[in-house]
Amino acid sequence: MAPLAVPRESPYKIKLTAIEQQNWNAEPPDIRCHIFQVLRAKMVLHAAEGWSNDQIARCLDTRREVVSQWRKRFFEERLAGLEERSRPGRPGLFPPELIVQVKALACELPPPITSALPLEFWMN
Hints:
Blueprint: H1 18-26, H2 35-48, H3 53-60, H4 64-77, H5 96-106, H6 119-122
């Protein structure tokens, strides 16, 4: 059996509402915004400009299938479709607050060194 051909032109044409366009063009994404949210927003904005999935994937250095997935979800669910969904599998062992604290601690400089090792030693 021959594999099914994936259409090169998306059936999901994106047209932003006036409110969506106003909200997204008002100010650049917050630096604290999750990088994947920014990437998804760029996919949708390029799709609204009429770009193909192939063009968007090349521009954002991702796979066409990923662009197609997010384009479809936005088409069907609008902004709610771009949110993270729960994933199957075992939940994390540590609460998010603890993970943040550990990462902050890891980013601190080491305590004053009493040995003869230079700071560069600890950075490799």
